[in-house]
Fold each of these.
Amino acid sequence: EIVMTQSPATLSVSPGESATLSCRTSQEIVNNLAWYQHTPGQAPRLLIYHASTRATGVPDRFSGRGSGTDFTLTISSLQSEDFGIYYCQHYSRWPRAFGQGTKVE
Amino acid sequence: QVQLVESGGGLVLPGRSLRLSCSASGFIFNNYGMHWVRQAPGKGLEWVAVISYDGSVTNYIDSVNGRFTISRDNANNTVFLQMSSLRAEDTAVYYCAKDIHSYGYLYFDSWGQGVMVTVSS
């Protein structure tokens, strides 16, 4: 089973600033990683897949990088709608797993 | 546009059963794998189960294997999660999610709003 570790747990940023979120996997997953944004009361939203490809409609201020076991999600020039919890998730093998989340506040 | 609407949640006694449904629209349902993902109160997301486009392949997280069964009705664009021998630790919001792959091998491009399941005496 692959363990996903996200850091930091909480990131306090102001609108207009940038934020960098980290995700580390316990085993090599190549680039089989997705990032989701989850705002309370709403459905989670796919942001990034294959570690660095933005999903349809996702603004280019969101960017993903990494391969192997270390990955990052960067949000440049944070907007008010970007606050929420961000999860990484691997799809390398079963069972699928999510990180514990990073809250951007 | 893609819509996924979960139903069937509620309060249930430990040891009892409950069946969740997820009604899908806006895409060709029988082309895609479907998942259930849950979020316990104050916790993160946890993948629960997957079913392939034709129902021939399923997979579960260990903690529900043997107690939960995922199935689908392609004629009615619905995926189900039959939950038996429920435990307090199954208390969570349950989301259904659409995979971009027919066997559910990849990532989730659409999610429902979720349905609450509370297991308590």
Amino acid sequence: GAVVSQHPSRVICKSGTSVKIECRSLDFQATTMFWYRQFPKQSLMLMATSNEGSKATYEQGVEKDKFLINHASLTLSTLTVTSAHPEDSSFYICSAPHLGQAYEQYFGPGTRLTVT
Amino acid sequence: DQQVKQNSPSLSVQEGRISILNCDYTNSMFDYFLWYKKYPAEGPTFLISISSIKDKNEDGRFTVFLNKSAKHLSLHIVPSQPGDSAVYFCAASARRGNEKLTFGTGTRLTIIP
């Protein structure tokens, strides 16, 4: 089946630093990718829609200057958490709709971010 | 405002029996519904989906039922197996396709051997 990867799988950083998370569709192209975050024992909340060749679309309440999204190619989207704070610690997951699979969304394995 | 709700945070079922997970939604614009299975520290895995033009979709041990008038869907797993133990999320979107998903709160299913 379709594969979506994320890198890194887990990262620990200090407050005030920036962290970049990569999301790749390994065997298909995706003009759109979605970024979610999940707090412990809670649902997945959509943060933004990443669009290849254009600006990302952010959900209400998500700071676009803090969570920078770049859809550099048809197989790669990156999420950069800038000036990270401990409250940004969370599980970040991306997904990509697969055109060849009727746009069924495939999810990456997630990235655990811990800000100290 | 939780547009997709799973009112049972947990469910325990004997192995071999039927597991029924429920999901309710409030947004009438939702037209396509999905169920995902998730293990801790992993991304969700797609299980089964249903379009609003149908009331039932079946795939192996998994069947999803949709009651559009009640804004309710359910996932039936039969027979339940120990490997089914996981957190199950229902999700909804305005249409099938390149569309963002709204997730429910999740139900932790435990299959008792």
